[in-house]
Amino acid sequence: MSADFLKTPIDYLKGVGSERAKTLQSELSIFRYEDLLNYFPFRYVDRSKYYKIKEITPTLAEIQVVGKMISLREIGQNRGKRLTARFVDETGEIELVWFRFTKWLKETMETYIGKQILIYGKPNEFNGKINMVHPEIETMENHKSSPQGLFPVYSSTEKLQKKGISNRVMQKLQFQLLSEIQYLEENLSEELIEKLKFPNRLQAYRQIHFPKNTYELKQAENRLKFEEFFFLQLGLLLKKLNHQQKFKSYEFESIGNYFNEFYANYLPFELTNAQKRVIKEIRADLAKPVQMNRLLQGDVGSGKTMVALLSALIAIDNGYQVAFMAPTEILATQHYQALTTYLSKMDIEIGLLTGSTKAKERRELAEKLVTGEMKILVGTHALIEDNVVFNNLGLTIIDEQHKFGVAQRAKFLKKNKFPPHVLVMTATPIPRTLAMSLYGDLDISVIDELPPGRKPIKTVHRKDKDRLALFKFLKDEIQKGRQIYIVYPLIEESEKLDYKDLMDGFESISRAFPLPNYAVSIVHGKMKPADKDFEMQRFAKGETEILVATTVIEVGVNVPNASVMVIESAEKFGLSQLHQLRGRVGRGADQSYCILMTKDFLTDDAYQRISTMCRTNDGFEVAEVDMQIRGPGDLMGTQQSGILNFKLANLAKDQKMLHTARFIAEEILKLDPELNAPENQFIKKHFVQNHKEKFIWSRIG
Ligand code: ADP
Ligand code: MG
Fold this sequence. Notes:
Blueprint: H1 3-6, H2 17-28, H3 33-37, E1 43-46, E2 63-75, E3 82-89, E4 92-99, H4 103-112, E5 116-121, E6 123-126, E7 129-133, E8 136-139, H5 140-145, E9 150-153, H6 158-162, H7 167-180, H8 190-195, H9 201-209, H10 214-246, H11 257-266, H12 273-286, E10 293-298, H13 304-317, E11 321-325, H14 329-342, E12 350-353, H15 359-371, E13 376-379, E14 393-399, H16 406-414, E15 421-426, H17 432-438, E16 443-447, E17 458-463, H18 467-479, E18 483-487, H19 495-512, E19 520-523, H20 529-540, E20 546-549, E21 562-567, H21 575-582, E22 593-598, H22 604-615, H23 619-630, H24 632-636, H25 655-671, H26 681-690
Helix pairs in contact: 7-9, 9-10, 10-25, 11-13, 12-13, 22-23
The chain binds adenosine-5'-diphosphate and magnesium ion.
């Protein structure tokens, strides 16, 4: 049976017809046989399990019970008319109910009275008694000859139900389709199937829809999940190969004077092992005549700036210019200052270009850029404007924080005749499996180690009853000269309440920390930018000891003397937000603290978030837990979740499978980058048929 068969419009399937076809199309996007085949059950009912009546509770899903119908009667009038039956086994009795019944149904039910039958349906509670509405009924003889095992349950919609496409009907359609398929062309090689002990493709589909037992189900899931991961990884890796082929770039052959001089004389600290490793990785990329496309992940404070600087020096050593882009003016200015300080003893021209750069300065910058005199240009989006022309831009460093999108990156590249190498730095750790799936076409470096000597932030969980002790602790810290952030949640849906909490909080803090001994600042989203800025500056200058704020505390606010972060109603924050907020402290030499205030009783999820924060400072570990709790889609926001729309696979739960899939895809492409080997033909064919993106096969490898 060829792939064409699977392209048959769904109307042609026995049992569908044009009316049902329309419903399947509009409700489930099932247009062809293959769409139906790939519409997987979302759960299974174990039909080897039989319930006794005394075990039944209304919270159960579909169940089956063996027993006898002992009476049948019509009750009610007109629209309230219904058919009811008493159904018993040796442990008790329940009621069966049919609303809207036909004469035929009633007559059929009458033939069952007194016989041993099996009923199947969802139990409900009505007037304190258990009943079952519209149960499916089978005689025991029939039941014994029908397929056993796990029964698929397909997710449904109201419209499907109304149009009569019940779960039972869906099962029948799937069964019909599977019985018409004698053979399914493979999409994996024989060796692979053997090595991974997978069922063949048709078996896998049979077993995912109608598994005889959980072992069969597991086998089918394994294979189909693997396919999802494998073809995604194959696509990403091919994109990477393709990119390397298409985008030639400058070859930075040698490390020269600038790098060596800086390294020998001006490096202000010993690099961490992680920094050294990452610089080696970047160095190796830059030495190739292929555009570097590397993502550098490292938690706040892990020392990415120095990595950026050393990379820049390699470019400059080879005669090229460097662009360094940051998402905000504050950050761009900070980077500019950091680089200027580090390089103050060296003869390297650095410029800063932001929205507020004056026209005259701009002209001067532009001139030095064109001549190549200016070696490093730091800036905001202003860098990607058309009038910014480099002499020979060789390396672009983008500090992404989490504000730039991939699109902007692309735009930045297009304006160059030859694409420069690209290093994107991000401070938002994402779990490895997620990075592999979203950015699998990039190279990824990770700084997973903080510079030495930094005291880890102590994170603790406290409740309302601890508030007096908290205030005492804060006073002691202020006594020692420290400053304090107190953050309140701001959730859009409950904005009014949150402001009330914030203002109440501010008042009680002001009372507990009265003038003239203490000064308290407040910053929130409803203030005018100028007022906000004024208050922030007061705190930054040390004129106030406490800053009460909503989460508007800007990315990049850097007050090293602030060493305590109190987060009120911490249970309302997401994990990554808590971690980001915690990153505001721990920037100075003093011991820092993060205090998570919550109400007494927490949901399981909230408890897991809080205890994760108390357990670890490691952003990657935090991100991993966050993904387990929220799922990968929510973690990344909607714009990227498309690629994560797996039918069966789950990045949080199937990590091992993903690594296997990635590894195997790499191995295959290493030996056969164009997938020309006979054993890879099924893979290639499937990939080409299902991939929207076109690859230039002849140029790969
Ligand atoms: P981020 O990764 O958040 O950009 P930075 O590059 O700003 O981190 O570094 C944070 C701080 O750590 C800076 O003050 C920097 O000077 C310092 N730092 C970076 N690397 C090291 C190191 N290897 N040893 C000691 N201090 C370091
Ligand atoms: Mg930084």
